[in-house]
Amino acid sequence: MPLIDRTTSGVYIICATPFTETGALDLDSLDRLVDFYVGTGVTGLTILGMMGEADKLTPEERRAVIDRVMARTSLPVVVGVSDAGLGNLAALGLYAMEKGAAGLMVAPSKGSPREDRVIAYFHAVAGALGRDVPIVFQDFPQSTGIPVSSRTILELSADLPQMVMLKHEDCPGLTKITTLREAEATGAPRLSILCGNGGLYLPQELARGADGAMTGFAYPEALVETVRLWQEGKQAAAEDLFDRYLPILRHEQQPGWGLAVRKTVLMKRGAIACAATRAPGPRLTGTDVAELERLMGRLAKKLAKEV
User: Fold this and answer.
1) In 17-34, which positions are buried (b, 16+ CB within 10 angstroms) versus exposed (e)?
2) Cβ(93)–Cβ(129) below 8 Å
3) The model's pTM
4) Is 214 annotated as ligand-binding?
5) Exposed e or buried b for every residue in 121-147, given b needs 16+ CB within 10 A?
6) Where are the alpha helices (DSSP H) in 7-111?
7) 149-200 pLDDT, tens per residue?
8) Binding of pyruvate: at which residues (predicted)?
9) Rounded-to-integer distance, Cα 169 and Cα 167, Å
10) What H or E segment, with its residue span, contains residue 45?
11) Would 2 be classed as within a structural domain?
């Protein structure tokens, strides 16, 4: 499996983790989900991310997910390995690389929001993993509580050759992309920039110089086609296509609740057997489901008119 690098582009879909109604890991649904994602044309997958409920999995379950996904696809797979303990992070990360991972995603550790601490932490992570392991810096201050400046990202990119990608989820964050690309134009090492936040701002992020998306959305084909059209120079067509999905994309991005929406859509699209999140987690009511079905129906009608 190829490793990610500083030129990686496309769509790396954040993979949900399927569970049964009782909360058990559903590996058969994971197979179906991987097949579904591959069928939408994604460039790669990212597993065990925050929206993959990795923090609710046991160490054994995390390894089971890695094993199952790696056995199911030849696409590059990035593995989220963020952990409160550096030893735990390194053990899972090295296990994932042995199994064929394309790289590892790491978020700043929680604690004092000082940038010198972030810099020291990523040097420690890089030392624990080794120079040959590609690292994705997950910049998601809305979740971690750790804001990170463009200057710090550029410093780490220059100091750590293995930090090859930024998963950009700062919000507002468009200016950060511009700052990084301007610095690269004057000699800073290039970083691959793939963006998160469900893809809500994807056309604007691509216009600022992002290389694609690394995020979750229950209609991955929308992200794939948006990035493809943009990279082909068809920016207006990319934005027109993206706009068709905006109502349901926006609906899926409700904080603390969107994962249940995403899993319900994936279930209704036949990708997983059950929409359950692992406790404690959100669950849709009958009214919520009816509302979602209406949005899905409206989208289906829009898309049918184009055929």
Assistant:
1) bbbeeeeebbeebbbbbb
2) yes
3) 0.96
4) yes
5) bbeebbeebeeebbbbbbbbbeebebe
6) 27-39, 59-72, 86-98
7) 999 999 999 999 999 999 999 999 999 999 999 999 999 999 999 999 999 9
8) 214
9) 6
10) strand 44-47
11) no
CB of 171 within 8 A of CB of 138? no
pLDDT over 70 (residue 280): yes
State how many domains the chain has: 1
Domain assignment present for residue 74? The answer is yes
Tell me which amino acid residue 307 is.
V
Q: Are 90 and 129 in contact (CB under 8 A)?
A: yes
From 179, 188, 104, 194, select the one nearest 148 (Cα to Cα).
Answer: 179
> 43 by DSSP, 3-state: which?
coil
Nearest residue to 126 via CA among 167, 154, 93, 168: 93
Q: What angle do CA 68, 73, 75 make, to 5 degrees?
A: 130
Per-residue CA distances from 27 to 59, 164, 272 (Å)? 15, 31, 10
Q: Which residues touch 30 (CB under 8 Å, ≥6 apart)?
A: 17, 18, 65, 68, 69, 72
Residue 27 maps to which CATH number? 3.20.20.70
**Domain hosting residue 71, numbered range:** 10-242
For 226-262, how does the pLDDT look when each residue is reduced to its tens digit (9 = 90+)? 999 999 999 999 999 999 999 999 999 998 899 999 9
Using alpha carbons only, how large is the chain's radius of gyration in Å?
19
Tokens 């899993």 belong to which residue?
Answer: 263
Domain for residue 298, yes or no?
Answer: no
**Is residue 72 a part of any domain in this protein?**
yes
pLDDT tens by residue, 110-145:
888 899 999 999 999 999 999 999 999 999 999 899
| CB of 292 closer than 8 Å to CB of 265 | yes
